[in-house]
Design goal:
5 strands, 46% helix, alpha+beta, three-stranded antiparallel sheet
């Protein structure tokens, strides 16, 4: 089997959904016993003061709190966001409060929240 170039690998990842990419990262971390989290920036204060860690949240969970009165529309949005089947998406909506996306970046979490709220759902981002 020929070794894939970095560009070819990036093209493959570009075709994955957020859920598939998240599953890949978890499997990669387990297989190689590593963490894919970004390194935390450390800022040192002058005058010999102790360095202070600055950590910015980069992983968000989008939680469906309630479907509202447009349950079918909310199920459609959950299916679009997660690529779940109809029965699985309905189970997520019926099981509210339930996480729709886990470990998403800020942009994806905000888009998911906006889409779910537009469909009439009550959503929180943690």
């Amino acid at each position: 089997m020929a070794k894939l170039t970095t560009e070819e690998l990036l093209e493959q990842f570009a075709g994955l959904t957020l859920v598939e990419l998240s599953e890949f990262v978890k499997a990669f971390e387990e297989k190689f016993d590593v963490t894919a989290a970004a390194p935390v920036a450390v800022a040192g204060a002058g005058g010999g003061a102790a360095a202070e860690e600055v950590e910015e949240k980069d992983s968000f969970d989008v939680v469906l709190e309630a479907a509202g009165d447009k349950k079918i529309q909310v199920i459609k949005v959950v299916r679009e966001l997660t690529s779940l089947g109809l029965g699985e998406a309905k189970a997520v909506v019926d099981g509210a409060p339930k996480a729709v996306l886990e470990g998403a970046n800020k942009e994806a979490a905000d888009k998911a929240k906006d889409a779910l709220e537009a469909a009439g759902a009550t959503v929180t981002v943690k």
